[in-house]
Protein 1
Amino acid sequence: MARRDYYAVLGISRSASSEDIKRAFRGLALKHHPDRNPGDAESERRFRECAEAWECLGDPEQRARYDRLGPLYTPTGRPPSPDELNDIFRDALNGLFRRRRPGGAGEDLRYTLTISLEEASTGVERTLDVPRTVRCKKCDGTGDHAEGRTPCAPCAGTGRSPTRRLLRTDCATCDGRGYVPARKCDRCGGEGRHPLEDKLKVKVPAGVATGQKLKLKLKGHEPAAFAGTTPGPAGDLYVVVQVDDHPLFRRRGADLLCEVPVTFPEVALGADIAVPTLAGNTTIRIPSGTPSGKTFRLPGRGLPTVEGGGKGDLHVRVVVEVPTALNADQRAAVSALGERLGQDAHPARRAWEQTLRSRR
Ligand SMILES: [Zn+2]
Ligand SMILES: [Zn+2]
């Protein structure tokens, strides 16, 4: 079968820049990957064709040979194996042309911070002990000592994999450094970075709710920095807020709910009763004849909203507590009260009984 022109395969001109070639290959590799086109022989053929074209044109030396030899050019390697095709796709998905290692960015970090409802209401500043990875200061993140480094033989000091592969990867011998360390750094054990319990200040805004994330830029893990590479930025730290349950209040957005047990005489006669707020206790007046379960709203006694501008309300629900375990004296008193009140004091009950009687 006649070999197609590699430039035509990737749909680019002969004067395409190396960036153009990368972009064209990446697009086609994603489009024709067998995982996306299961059982499609034509896609697989196109995928292999693109991989072969990329293998040649993606390497400046090979590309120069191809341009010189034209149809006489033969790739020296074998066609890509299924495993290698999978490698390509994985690399493509992971950001094919961005070397994550060793010059990559550090990993993000997550920290769960538990605060009280009172702290969520006012906002709070906390100092966290965050276990993160920091670049080793003793070796500047290189993992070794500068003196005594020898160039890596297998990759000839390039740090790239010496075996012919579809995509250049880091040399396994030197881990992409391009040199062999003489002596590992004794502070970080050659990793170029080490764990550290870092003290970090975080400002939690008033009105924060469970699940909200506060981002501390560049306070995640720091990457190592092997010699000759520019270290990437540290990851970010995400502080995930967890607001503790409160014994008195339930929360609904910026509003607070509270249930207060009251006595029958209090709701019957009206009373001033003490109710809690986040800022301390206060008193509300309940009128005579207040039904059990009635809710009173205390405006502005809830939580502030994170966006600012206004506060939620406090909803106080009064629930009549029915006395239990009465002694003989108390029973007699309640019984006498019932008789004294009679039907006139209980219109709902009277109507109910009339309805039941009318069914007979
Ligand atoms: Zn090497
Ligand atoms: Zn070190």
Protein 2
Amino acid sequence: MDNNQAFRDRPINLDEAGNSKRILAKQPEGKWYTRRTVFAWICILFLIFAPIIKINGNPLMLLDIANRKFSLFGNLFFAQDTFIMALIMLVTVVCIVLFTVIYGRLWCGWACPQTIFLEMIYRRIEYLFEGNPRNNLKNKEEDPFFIFRRIGKHLSFIIISFLITNVFLMWFTGPEKLLEIISSPVSENQLGFIFMAGISIFYYVVYAFLREQICTVFCPYGRLQGVLLDSRSISVIYDFKRGEPRGIKNGGDCIDCGQCIAVCPTGIDIKNGSQYECINCTACIDECNSVMKKIKKPGNLIRFDSYNGIETGKRSVFNARTYAYSAVLLILIFILGFTVSNRSTIDVSILRMPGTMCQIIDSTIVSNIYNVKIINKTNKAKHITFKLTDIQQANLEFTNDISLLKEGKTFETVLMIKLPKQKLKGRTTDLKIGIFDNNILISTIAINFIGPQN
Ligand code: SF4
Ligand code: SF4
């Protein structure tokens, strides 16, 4: 197989026998790399501080699966909020699909934790110990300290992997519980430590050995690109109209210097067109721009554009479709935000006790019995009272004290409603029960009351 066409057959980081080839990418330099570095550190800080920062006493982000309690942007969700969680997941999937159709794999190159950790932390540590292929890659045959450099690199990788594991765990346990696990003796938390060690080893293997193979071989999102992208999608693309025929003497702007390949973290040649291995990291844009500057040609031979934009010569980053899809994206996010922020914090259900009808207490009073379930979805105890809003002379009796509902708890009790006979409107009377939190009406529930048969 012609080596230039090998990319059609197999991932670029695998040889013909299927063995992985190590990719030693040069460190990029340029405005896109600077922007990416700033954005990556914002993401890293968010990852570290999201479970620590509190809004209304709740973590900004917490996925406490063990206690079936989730905090998203300070809003608490419990197992009873499955509907909202399902809605969030559904909207997230639709958003990912829409975002990819418009903006290609921007997520992969800019916000995916795999890329951020690999490019901004692990690879920089590697450059530090073993040199940057851009200028002074240490040659292991000639360098007597190479083995120490490699040991130093791997030790650093292990420490960073352990730290990342702690950050990752904090999203599921919260900082307090994590601190408790870390500070307690291993014998008291064997399962937790085995789990932490397992995840740390996993991260170490991923970042020290598997690296870009996670994006090119394992990641299902990467594999979906062929379905989601079309000729109008924006991605990092080579301007073949301007660049070809490539080569110094052939007339195109591309001088075939190979620098865009040398800097690519997945080792591909962007000049071969859109490939699923391209994570849109923009490293090749920076590198080609610096080559263009040296040969005094206009920049952006590689740039963000669509295939149609290159083909027609009209740059098409923002077009009617981009705006329309972005509007749909924003509307979806708005609906989700509205639903989440307006969801009730106290859920009450009142259902007639199965098999019961009307009880005659005496000649003037009759009663009905109901099962009541109250869920306090906040992180504060609530003082709840029930009152019939349309009949004053009613008597509401609970089998348990419901006045103080503990935070995040579900409470079940039995309610007996006693009514004067003269208030009944035939066989069935519609009633409205007001639910009050600290004497403030928070919701009204409609039920019906069955009277005696005449
Ligand atoms: S860096 Fe630019 S000029 Fe060099 S091979 Fe790549 S596209 Fe061509
Ligand atoms: S082709 Fe360019 S944008 Fe795509 S992964 Fe390689 S360097 Fe990044």
